Amino acid sequence: MVYSFMPIVTVSLFGGRTQREKDRLAEAITESFCKILGVDKKEVVVVFQEAPHGNFYSEGIRL
Fold first, then answer.
1. What are the structural domain ranges in the chain?
2. Catalytic residue at 52?
3. pLDDT-derived band of residue 3, with 50, 70 and 90 as boundaries?
4. Quick one: 21 exposed, middle or buried, by C-beta within 10 A (0-12, 13-18, 19+)?
5. How would DSSP label each residue in the chain?
């Protein structure tokens, strides 16, 4: 049985990356999903969620 679905990848990161960096990352993520899951490029959606540095914590400590 073959399942068809649209992978949606959400990437959360600090704000401040260039558009080119996000473009390159989206391309790499898309290629990996296509290779591993066997889906077409047009099926992969990559969403970037950017937030200011003060909104991220690790071990209860603001990054």
1. 1-49
2. no
3. low
4. exposed
5. -------EEEEEEES---HHHHHHHHHHHHHHHHHHH---GGG-EEEEEEE-GGG-EETTEE-
Rounded to whole angstroms, the Cα distance separating 58 from 60 reads 5
Pick the CATH number of 1-49 from 3.30.429.10, 3.50.50.60, 3.40.50.10580, 3.40.140.10: 3.30.429.10
Catalytic residue, chosen from 5, 7, 58, 60, is: 7
Which residue is listed with tokens 């990054």?
Answer: 63
pLDDT tens, 6-16?
899 999 999 99
